[in-house]
Amino acid sequence: MNSILQTDRYYLTTNVLTRLSVAAVFMCLAANFVSDCVVAGEGRLEVLPETIHASADYPARFVAVLRAEDGTVRELSADKYQAHLDDPSFASLDSKGWIHATRDGQTVLRITYQDQTVKRPISIKGSLPEPPSFPREISAVLSKSGCNLGTCHGNLHGKGGLRFSLRGDDPGFDFDSITLDQGGRRIDWIEPEQSLLLRKPSGGLAHQGGVKLPRNSIAYVWMKRWIESEDNQQSQNELTNPSNELVELRVEPARAIIPTDSRKLSLVVWGRWADGAVRDVTRWARYEPNLTAGVAIDEAGGVSAEHPLDVAIAVSYLQARSSARITFLASDQVAPSAPTFANPIDRLIQQQLDQLHIESTEVADANRIFRRMFLVTVGRLPTVTEMREFLMDEQSDKLDFWRDKLLADPATARIWALRWSDVLRNEQKVMSAKGTQLFADWLAKQFAEDRPMNEIAASLISSVGSTFDNPPASFHRTHRDPTIAAESIGQVFLGVRMQCAKCHNHPFDVWKQDDYYGLAAYFTTLEREQIDNKRPDDLDKHVITGDEIIRLVSKPAEIWHPGRSLQVGPRPFSSTVVATAPKLVENPLAELADWVTRDNRQFARNMANRIWFHLMGRGIVDAPDDFRISNPPSNPELLEYLTDELIRSNYSVRHLSRLILSSEAFMREPVSQVADSDELPAATSFAGYPLRRMPAELLLDAVADATGVPLTRDGAKDGEENHRAAFATTVPPSSSFVRAFGKPERLLVCECERSDQLSVRQSLMLLNGDDVRKRINSRRSTLRKLIDTGDSDQQILETLYLTALSRQPTLEEKTAMFAHIQNAKARDEAFEDILWALLNSEEFVFIN
Amino acid sequence: MSACADFQKSRLHRRTLMRIGSLGLAGLGLPNVLRREAMASSDHPIARAKSVIFLHQCGGPSHIDTFDMKPNAPDGIRGEFRSIASSVPGLRVCEHLPRWADTLHYWGQVRSVHHRMKNHNSAGYYCLTGHAPPSDDIRIRDTLDLFPAYGSIVAQQLGPIAPGIPPFVSYPHNVRDGSITPGQHASFLGKPYDPFFFQADPNAKDFRLGELQLPESINLERLSRRRELMNVVDNHRRLADRMAEVRGWDDLQQQAFSMLTSPALQRAFDLSSEPDRLRDAYGRTNYGQSCLLARRLIECGVRFVTVYFAQGIGGAGSEGWDTHQENFKDLKSRLLPITDQTVPTLIADLQQRGLLDDTLVLWMGEFGRGPKIGDRDGKGRGHWPECYTVMMAGGGVQGGSVYGASDHQGAYPAENPVGPEDITATLYWALGIDPQAEIFDTQKRPLPLTTGSPIMDLF
Lengths: 848, 459
What we know:
The structure holds two protein chains of two kinds. By secondary structure, chain A is of the alpha+beta class. Helices cover 39% and strands 16% of the residues of chain A. Chain A contains 32 helices and 30 strands. In chain A, a hairpin with a 4-residue loop joins strand 25 (559-561) and strand 26. In chain A, helix 19 packs across helix 21 and helix 30 packs antiparallel against helix 31. The longest helix of chain A is centred in the first third of the chain and has 24 residues, at 9-32. Chain A starts with a helix and ends with a strand. Mean pLDDT of chain A is 89; it is low at 1-35. Chain B is α/β, with parallel strands linked by helices. In chain B, 37% of the residues lie in helices and 14% in strands. Chain B has 13 helices and 18 strands. Chain B has helices at residues 2-41, 75-78, 98-102, 120-129, 150-158, 220-237, 239-242, 244-261, 263-268, 276-282, 286-299, 327-352, 420-430; strands spanning 51-57, 83-85, 92-94, 107-113, 168-171, 176-177, 179-180, 196-197, 304-308, 359-365, 368-369, 383-384, 388-393, 402-403, 405-406, 413-415, 438-440, 446-448. The chains are: A alpha+beta, B alpha/beta. Chains A and B meet through helix 4, strand 27, strand 29, helix 26 and helix 27 of A and helix 1, strand 7, strand 8, helix 6 and helix 7 of B.
């Protein structure tokens, strides 16, 4: 239960938006008793945060916004409203929206705009600045100033001899580094301002990193005060006392949509400690946007955008992580009222498009949808016969007919097996050629039978025995190291990348080393026996040529946790238990499989997202295996709906596929999905079909199909030549066409190992490479047969277009092509040129 | 994973460092810091290399029998070869490198490179990337977790010198020892930064470059007509107008066309246009003609060329430098003659054409050879990563300079020990790339280009 709640936290931040706005309205009513705070024609006046805490060292930020009826939010600059403190003897207000404490007590802040006033209670702790504490103020200074970043002192070698833990992950280490390392020469206890720790970053001595702590900045003063008052015993206590732990970090607003006439928004960040203290840490948090250009965030959480964009901002303070997502709209024009959609997918997408004022693209031509559907299901182009059949069919439900037919086609199951073979690391060195085939066949069989996805996953995790007789046990053949198996559980089955937590707590998320080694411990009671292993190279211990038997042995499940320097036992991640002792579990794999796949919403959500990713070309969480606080789903409601549907259908991949393929979203004209572009919001909100290059194997198969010259496998026997790159179970060498186009080597559990990047070499391979050139020139090609049969120019041209591009040539194209044939020396050469042009066209290379 | 290996190494290290090592380190470290600060105020050297020729000697060339000879060492160490004087007073090299000896004044050498990888693939990866592998695995697997080749980093950081000229070309072997040695491609940087790689022998009569050279049946005119037809098809959907991806693809296609049609690049690959005398001077071998090609590629604007000496580690009768058996016979009859013919010719040729000033030539292997003679057949030398020599010329390197020193047996660094990462940092620094710049792996983790420091004394 715990784990489910915990993994659900990805949604908390995004759902907070809706809850927050509801709560804010309510507060406004409650606080004012008289009005609902609506400023006529402008929207509702709101003030964040709900309760304001200010103290001597932590002035408090508040933000006044107008929330329009459509949910967009516009920040009011300080000159637009009147701010008033009921009792100004407790605190003062500055012109930038900060409240500075003067003495302890309570008062009320009133913000008045036009005829509306919002009240906010303020709690003030102002009289005595506390002596700075190392794990709080000093750690915050090191992080805020960037001292502990990987590029500065926060890396394995440090800089100039000084090392900090990465992003303040380990304050105890940083404390030792400052006070003990190099004989304590960094601190001058007698004359604090002579300390290297202050002189270097303040510009008093040369510092490669430049001036990071200007003299008399708050950070400098804190550092100085800490050195003056440093009491080693007290610091040690603070470093270990649980009441000093930060238990909550909140960013407000966590979600905002900003209309076009506003390009700024201030964030407020506050933290709550275990002892109940609340501090405004807006100034001390670090803000890291997921875009590299177009957005600027100042020191105090002020976000500004140069152009319309959608940004997720990772907010970190001490060891806590949170995030905000802000959309700066491109248009205030609300798209024309959309039709009512039958498919809930389209309703949920339209809901978001309305919010974001994005217009969807048109529905594509039927033959283009037809081609697209073939590519994402059976992984090939429609044949010329299929094309003609489809074009001549006049039934209005012809797409439905083909959709069901394709989803039931064994080739669709083989394409799923290809996708899963990638992330399950099904490669021949460890698996043997026979093993890869058996494992891929097993996977294909599961998808052909539409076996529930949670059962497939449970089989993979818990199967043992002979990998030849019981192929799902291959999971333990390909994941030989418990830590790699744990990473796979995280990344493949739950969509969470945990690799960072192997060596240190995850810098951008909540994963701890405890989670990592807790998972890894499940895989520590396995034994592997190789049957008839005939390594051609005895030194290559990665090679297993024969069968392998996986066995569970009765011994405590445990693994060495390097961070804690102790043996730890298995535990699901995100449990409240910190680390558990090694223990004897009867069947740790069954226990783990049960936890991962039964009633685990994050598992279902990850699977729903992956199915969407493969069919739509982009995850709702993207990359699909990177669920992270700072990488929220682009449409949470849609993802939750798909998750519900997957669970409701008893984890039927076919059901969810049918639902997705029958949505209008699948059938729309393409949209670009290049990172950092203005057009990206259209792709992330699925206003059109995200464009992408054809995957490697599909492209090579398409070349083979379009030329009619099939692929041959190395050493293929006669009659075996109808080989398809997409069905191959082994990975060819790096010089091959498919590897140049990004087929993964299957050595990582990451979806990212398959590259969809473009390169000059790829272009050269299509323009002039053997795989394409020899097929175009081949005497056995379809083109040659058509010529030999005596087909007319018109007939040949149409057939080539239908096979390669799934459409008829346009009039313009016909004119140009016929002219080319007329002027050419030889007719067959002219047609070769045309076929070449088709295979190198954008329309052929991209799924559009 | 590699990042983690680095990190864990340091994590283990740091507690010990705290307890015992830190004062000692301070004693060592302080003069360096001061020196750097002092240097900042004087006129310190400026990075001026524009391109790099990386000559990779697979197998591990013996340092004691080439550039770091120990004439006074005892019999079982000294070896059979005598040393001869070079063009740099006081520096001596092996008698079987007489031509190299005459060009030694162009070379800087680092005689104190050391690491701990005893296997070819793990050590090879280390010296091809400047990053320690996760383990000393004899058949380390080439995964996207591992770091990219130098040339890929350079291509990513600096881009091509001229449009349509590939920034990184490597040939004529894909180095392997049982399995492919990692570090020869772009790894997690991505496909756009992979080298243009070919395995053909430039010395062969039918030397061809696969997809980089048009077949005879397709002349430029036919290619251009084909291209017009393609534009007709692309005009139908006009995807490039709306889709940045497609525009990106069109740019790459444009570059591909330029490569196929560029007289400069196509000519660069045509070695027959070189005078026979020069071709003979380089040596009519795969290595010799490969080095000639390297010069031609640099000349036409390629930024980084890697020439692999051999496909495998070799040993008796094969091509590499792994002289476990017959160390002296192999060096004398095969490895040194090829090297002595080709490398000095390359340097002289670059110099004559005014290319040496901004071309850094790096000559190294994955490790040196053990000082004690007697490996296997009693006449060989074993693997020796503990101390070996790396040679650098051009690109601002001070000719005749020597950095670091080995002990009297050539066994361990006696002075200024450096790791492969410091060679890497030097290489990047020479090109004007900040060695501490960040790159991102498949998990988007920021990683430093290198953890080493440039050896400024060489410049």
